[in-house]
Amino acid sequence: MEGTIIATPMGRPQRDNQPLLLLTITDISERKRAEERRLQLERQMQQTQKLESLGVLAGGIAHDFNNLLTIILGNTSLALDDLPPLSPAGESLLTIEKTSLRAAELCRQILAYSGKGRFVIDDIRLGNLVGDMFSLLQSSISKKATLNLNLKEPLPPLHGDPGQIRQVIMNLVTNASEAIGDRGGVITISTGLMQCSREYLCEPYLYENLAEGLYVWFEVSDTGTGMDQETQRRIFEPFFTTKFTGRGLGLSAVLGIVRGHKGALKVYSKPGKGTTVKVLFPALAEGKFSAEQGAAPKAGTWNWKGAGTILLVDDEESVRTLGTRMLERIGFKVLVAADGQEALDIYRKRRDEIALILLDLTMPQMDGEATLHELRRIDAKVRVAISSGYTEAEIAPQFAGKPLFGFLQKPYTLNALTQCLRDAMGDGEIPTEP
Length: 434
Known about the structure:
phosphoprotein; EC 2.7.13.3; Heat Shock Protein 90; His_kinase_dom; histidine kinase; Helix Hairpins; HATPase_dom; single chain
């Protein structure tokens, strides 16, 4: 019990002329616990606001940056398509394409911090995923660190993006290695399964009303320097780092990925005693595995040719110019519109010949969502594919109940555009000019 003692002299003395004291004891234990809970909620709210702020910033970066990368990648794809197979320029163009895709991946990593990164959903066996990464992890840690595995099998799968989960594991193992440094030590990766109560799930970092139930987990523990309470409170803040050359984005991305997978994260650490980071994901019940897999190119996609007319709507002139060249290369005739209103005017006049509308999401005056609404007032069966620098997961809530025929993530290559249009066309009849 914690409390305060107050001694108050009484007015009437005793027979021996000694004053009486009135002692009052107040138990403030519950008050202190309530204050600590309030402070914890305030810290969680501040962290949530930081995540949301960076999410808004990341979305803006994604839109503008991916438009630029679309021009680079698109023109590179067209140049590669024009070159003879043994052209000496081919290697240089492939390097440009590869580097541009790496730049796009960096943008997606920034989006991962906000929990809105685009996921390629699959059913993941944690043990298999960690085992496949073992050699890569060993080569990534300090030569004085020993990597041990403690994998419990069999475990039910989790539902998520294997690439994102690998990024979480790699970041945590890399941090553990840096905590060990040149002194030598042990890093252990463990997996397991546990039934999580609501009380247990209230404790993880950045609690967001997670559902109680069965969770698969992995943890990365090290025998490094450990962290004090102040450092632990800040490790997931954007750009906070204890390393001289660090950027402070690794653990921020980890937190965003875990949040995006509806998972939980716990940190246990003491100075001089090492650190353990435990990550929990909702377990997928056996027999309910998703058939949805990562998008793999369909056989024959790159030889596919289109027919009919595409209406390309984008407020960026350079994207319209490039898109026209790419669509014509695939075999389409192209109409272009610089904004939503112009797209509506064109569609009213030429709807019978337009096979599909490739519609940019972010435009001034009338954006893609409003344009789609008006297009469907003209024709409820209009074929529309959305193109955006934002991620598919991020725009999905805007189009709930409004089925689309496709989504094209910027930046995109000629092959990605071809596959999107092939999927969007399906087996339906393609309009042709009368």
